Amino acid sequence: MTALALFCAATVVFLVPRDLFFSDARYVEVWFGFEIHGTAALVTAPLHWAIFALGAWGFWTRRPWIAPLAAGYLFYAAFSHLVWSEMSPRGRGWPIGLIQAIAISAMGVLLLRSRGGTAPAQS
Fold it and tell me: Is residue 123 part of a domain?
């Protein structure tokens, strides 16, 4: 779970400067597969930061709820990729979105099946 904690932390370290200092990224966020622009993007960007910060803390401290929560986020991201691929002018169409959704969902399934490494150690 340390690797997942580090991944989440690195994502926060990447997202915050990107959203604050790069104008192309600053004014676009994607929620449920739909792009939002302008002030709405600026206001909702910290939600992405909070999600990944919570993931970093949850995985680092091995909270029992983190694996199902992270799997749920992966399923949400999979759905969002499918919608975005079809709805966005920058998308590549639903077949690519479906491939992305399957790959991302597979990671969610693996995370659920692994029990997230949060089970108590057996002695």
Answer: no
